[in-house]
Design goal:
This protein has 97 residues and is mainly alpha-helical. The chain has one domain. It is built from three helices and no strands. Helix 1 runs antiparallel to helix 2, helix 1 runs parallel beside helix 3 and helix 2 crosses helix 3. The longest helix has 24 residues. The relative contact order is 0.21.
Length: 97
């Protein structure tokens, strides 16, 4: 799989920094992570969940902490994952299925 760990979620590039995440934000992050990864086979493998979580954290630290903003960031992360997986399949790096 291609390295996507340094990609940014476009929707969350702007905004102020948050020094620490409050409990409400942590709860939202966990909820959105589970919701987004539920669309992946078997809830997503470790690397996929990690990537989505990193993108959500990037968004939250940029001050984007509403459910809508986090859900959008999670969906964008899924698009990136699927694009990489599709590219890897078409390049013969992984088997389809």
């Amino acid at each position: 799989m291609a390295d996507i760990s340094n990609s940014n979620t476009a929707a969350c590039k702007k905004g102020g920094k948050m020094s620490a995440l409050d409990e409400r934000t942590k709860t939202r992050l966990e909820f959105i992570l589970d919701e987004v990864c539920a669309t992946l086979p078997k809830g997503g493998d470790h690397e996929s969940r990690k990537f989505v979580a990193e993108q959500l954290m990037f968004c939250a630290r940029a001050g984007k902490t509403s459910l809508e903003e986090l859900a959008y960031a999670g969906q964008r992360a899924l698009v990136q994952l699927r694009r990489v997986a599709s590219s890897a399949r078409s390049d013969g790096l992984i088997e389809a299925g």
